[in-house]
Amino acid sequence: MYIGVDYYPEQWPRERWDTDLKLMKELGINVVRIAEFGWSVMEPEEGAYDFSLIDDAIAAIESYGFDVVLGTPTATPPAWLIEKYPDVLPADDHGNVIGFGARRHYTVNSEVYQQLTKQIVEEMAKRYGSHPAVIGWQVDNEYGHEKSDRSYSETDRKAFQSWLQEKYESLDELNERWGTVFWSQTYTNWSQIPVPKKVYQEHNPSLLLDFDRFCAEAYNRYNRLQVETLRKYIADRQFITHNFVYSGLSQDQKEMAKDLDFISFDNYPVWGGLADPISPAAIARQHDLCRGTKNGKGYWVMEELSGAQGWSQIGYLPRPGHLKLWTYQAISRGAEAIVYFRWRAARYGTEQFCHGILDHDGKPRRKYNEVKDVITSLEGFADQWIESEIPADVGFYHDPENDWAWQIQPQSDQFNYIGEFLRFYEPAHSLNAQGNIIRDDEDLSRYKVVVVPVYFLTKKTFNDRLKDYVANGGTVIFSYRTGVKDEDNIVTDQTLPGDLAGLAGIQVHEYESLRGGKSGRVKGVAGAVEGLSSSASVWCDYIEPETAEVLATYEDSWFQDRAAVTKNKYGEGTVYYVGAGIESPMLQKLYASIFEETNLTYTETAENVELVRRESEEASYLSVLNHDVEEGHEVALPEGEWTDAASGEKHTGVLEIPRLGSLVLEKRKQH
Ligand code: GAL
C-alpha cells in the first residue's frame, strides 16, 4: 500500500531537504507528491524551462527509496503568463475579472491557456515520463474549487454559445425547450444568448442548468487535453489521476473519471474556520462518492489532513486519535493509498496556517508520532485489506445535475442538496447498513433498497429503471420534491410526483416550503413509526394517498388529515415516500423496519460509532471507528473470534472502543 506525504521542496532551503527526507524515512512512508504548484520554478520565463530544482528534488527523494507522484502545475499560472496573456483570467458573475494573486485564475475555455497548458505538460512529460522514480501524475489540482468552476468572461460566453449550438442545432429547438417565450426571451441569433451574469431577478432555470452542464463539460475537455498530452510521452506504468472535490461544483466527476486511471480525493474532515469536524456520515458520504465515481475502483486520498487547517482563519485542531481514525475510515471505505497534507506548515504565502505533520519549526512531535503509529499499524495487513470487497446492499442516488437544479432553485433558505442527501443517507450510515452512491446508469437489481433523495430533476430513463426495479421486487425510498422537473429543468404538467406518482401510489396537490425557524410536526400512525413524533423542517408535501398506506400524518391544524409518510406496493416491490424533512430518530426507525423487511444486514451501534465490513476469499474484516471525542463505547461483535489485524489481540463478544479509537478486526475464513 502507498502511504506518503505532500511535499513542497521549492518552499524550503535545499539544506533542509535531507533532514526532511530522513524524517520521512523514519516515519515509514513510501511515496511523495510534489510540483503541483511549481510552474514558475519549472518555466521562469515563457519557453525557458529550468527543471533543475525538480530534477534534484526527485533525485533526493529517490535516494531514500521513495516513489514520486508529479503534479502538473496548471492550477497556478505564473505572473509572466498573466501579464502576457491577461485573457486567460476568468470572470465572476458580475463580469469582474478574477485577478492574479491566489490560484485557479484561468478559464478552461481560453484557447491560449489550453495551448500554454499543453506546452508545460508536454515538457514535463518528456522529461519525467520514463523516470524510474515517477510512478504517476496528478493533473492540475482540485478542478473547480474555490469558485473556479463557473467563469463568465467573454471567452466563456462564446464557448457557451457554440456548445448550445451543437446541443440544440436550431434556435427554435432551444427556444421551445427553455420556454423563452416567458419574459420575451426568444433568441433570434445565437450571439444573443448570455452567460448568466448578474441580472435584476433570476435567470431562466433552463439556461442556468445548461450553463452548469457546459462548465462541467468544458473542464472535462480541459482535463482530457492534459491526459492526452501526458499519454503521448509517459510510460504505460505511470498512472494519471486528479484530486477531486465533491462539494456541489459544476463538475461531473464521473464523466471526467473515464479519462483517468483512478480518481483521487482530498480528505479534510475539518477545514479553516470550522469549529468542529463534519459528521461521520458526511465524511463517509465523500468516501462513498469517491468509490462510486469509477464504479467501485479504489482511489487515492492525495491529501489527508494532518493538522489544523486554515488560511486567515484557523479551524479545529484534530485531537489525538483523529488522524488514525480518519485514515482508517478512508481505507475502510475504499481508499487504497493515503498521502498526508502537508509534510510541514509553510512559513510564507497564503497557506501559512495549513498545519502539517510538522509545524513551522520543523520538529517531529505528537502528529509525527501519530502518523508513524498509523503507518506501523498498517504494515502487516493493509495490502490484503485494500484488496477485499466492500459489500453494498443499498444504492443511494446522487446526481450532480440534480444538485445544480437545487442550487438554481433551492426553494427554501433551509435547502442544501448535500444536507438533504445526508438526511436520507445518515440513517443508513447510523445503522451501519452499507451502500454505494450511484448515478442513473447503474444496475439497480444488485441492491436490496434504493434511496432516491430529493429527486427534483428527473431523468426519464432512470424513472423507467426505477419502475422496473420495483415491479421486480425492489424497494425504493423517495422523498419530498420527487418528480417535479424534466431534464430541461421544466416543471411537469402531471400531478406530482409526476411520472412517479403511480409508483408511489400517491398524489401531492399542495406543498409548503418551510423557511428558517419554521417547522411542522409529523406523527407516526402505522408500521414501525407508529407512536413516534418528529419535527419536519425544510419542506412538507401534503400527500393524498391513492393506493399507498399512510405511515405518518401531519399534526397541523390546517392539514392534519394529510399524509406525511406513505408505503405503496407496486408489482412485487415496495415504495416509501417521505414527504417532509423529518428528523433522524424517526427515519432510523423507518429504515430499520425496511432493512428487516428486505433482509438487509445492519447493526445498531452507539451514536458516532461506525462499523465497516469488507470481505475477501480469505478473511472478513470489520473496522470499528469511534468518532466520539468524549466517550468510549461498547460494540457487540458479530459471532466468532476476531483478531485485531494490527496488534494480534483476540476479541469475542463485546469490544470496548475508547474515544476516537479505531481498529480493524479480522476473521480468517476456513476453506
Ligand atoms: C486543498 C488543496 C491544497 C491545500 C489544502 C489546504 O484543498 O488541494 O493545495 O490548499 O487544501 O488545506
UniProtKB/TrEMBL annotation:
Q: Where is the active site?
A: 142, 303
One term under GO cellular component: beta-galactosidase complex
Q: Which parts of the sequence belong to the Glycoside hydrolase family 42 N-terminal domain?
A: 6-379
Recorded GO terms, molecular function? beta-galactosidase activity; metal ion binding
One Pfam family in the UniProt entry: Glyco_hydro_42
Gene3D superfamilies, per the entry: 3.40.50.880, Glycosidases (3.20.20.80), Golgi alpha-mannosidase II (2.60.40.1180)
Which reaction is recorded as catalysed by this protein? Answer: Hydrolysis of terminal non-reducing beta-D-galactose residues in beta-D-galactosides
InterPro entries from the UniProt entry: Beta_galactosidase_Trimer, Class_I_gatase-like, GH, Glyco_hydro_42, Glyco_hydro_42_N, Glyco_hydro_b
Record-annotated residues binding substrate? Answer: 103, 141, 311
Please report the stretch or stretches of sequence annotated as the Beta-galactosidase trimerisation domain. 392-600
What is the E.C. number? 3.2.1.23
Q: One GO biological process from the UniProt record?
A: carbohydrate metabolic process
Q: Does the keyword Kinase apply?
A: no
Which keywords does UniProt give here? Glycosidase, Hydrolase, Metal-binding, Zinc
Question: Mind telling me which PANTHER family this protein's record contains?
Answer: BETA-GALACTOSIDASE GANA, BETA-GALACTOSIDASE YESZ
The record's similarity note reads: Belongs to the glycosyl hydrolase 42 family.
Q: What is the protein name stated in its UniProt record?
A: Beta-galactosidase
